[in-house]
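Notebook, student rotation project (T.W.).
Task set for the rotation: take a protein with a known small-molecule partner, predict the structure of the complex, and write up what can be learned from the model alone. Partner molecule chosen: pyridoxal-5'-phosphate. Sequence and SMILES entered below by T.W., checked by me.
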Amino acid sequence: MTVTLPPQPFLPFTRPSIDEDTIREVGDVLRSGWLTAGPKCAAFEHALSERFGGRPVRVVSSATAALELALRLCGIGPGDEVITTPLSWVATANVILAVGATPVFVDVDPHTRNIDLDRIEAAVTPRTRALLPVDLAGLPVDRDRLYAIASRHGLRVIEDAAQSFGAHWQGREIGSFGDLISFSFHANKNFTSAEGGCLVLRDEHEAQRFEKLRLQGVIRLPDGGMDVQHWGAKANLTDVAAAIGLGQLRSVDAFTVRRRQLAAQYFAHWPALPGFSLPPPDAAQHGNWHMFQPLLPEPLAARRGDFLAAMKAQGIGVGVHYPAMHLFSMFRARGHAPGDFPVAEDIGARTVTLPLFPAMTDTDVPRVIDAVAAVTALLS
Ligand SMILES: *Cc1c(COP(=O)(O)O)cnc(C)c1O
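Predicted structure of the complex:
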């Protein structure tokens, strides 16, 4: 006898949750006659600043813009080196190239998958100007050790916290302390404005310099005229996006709670599949579970494309975040080769991102786990 189950809807690896109030508020902006940077952006900055203990916050069109302009704010450019991780979205290194500086990669810690703090100091040279760490999957880099290294060597820190909104280090929220902190509001992040980002700054003086970098370098004069002393980008956010962001800000803490529950379900129900490595479980203490990423065992990892396709055939979307970026053609052309950062290469070759987003139901995690077990048996 064959039993035909009703087809289940496709489960993507992530999906934003936008509530009806937010949709209405976006409609209000569209009807208001003021679409681009205006009162909603100002309200969004104010709300973010309150969240971060009153620190100045400026919203921009993307985290890529926030990071690039943060580097420019620090005066980093040609001849300078910035230390970062090879295991991130390529934006992290692209922004360093964008200002004419050199990304200096340091391998990752096999446990946290974040930049290996034990290896940073060996990479510091007289040209090093800043550290640009990433909180992969929303698990914070050890901020105590990070800032101790930075202060020993007189370096700025630009935190790429694109994935760690709502995460904490030792009870303090990421963004509420530290040097410069960049967040992304891209649709796949823990909270979104469709596209967008922000930079948390140290003081109003830096925030005002950042405002000029954000929009064409323009300084408004009391007589209605303007002046431009330095180049500026075109990187303002829109009020349409800010309305989405303000709506999401009401829900983001509930999102984090739900993400932690779902991650706990993965750990509790994960079957005995030999060779798989689960993400660091201590993430529950500090992280926001931006992603849930087991590492495939060999030889299954060598067939990751088949794994993704077979999961998709089961109705489940799986992502890859990220291949080690120093092996991209652009960085090979700059002299990198396999073997340069073996830990990042190993993780990058084996990682898969399973579905984890707040609207998932309690039956979704078991469904994903069953599919992983079935597909692993099929491909082994
Ligand atoms: C998403 C992401 C970025 C870029 O964010 P955008 O808002 O898309 O520019 C940078 N770094 C990391 C680690 C990211 O995950």
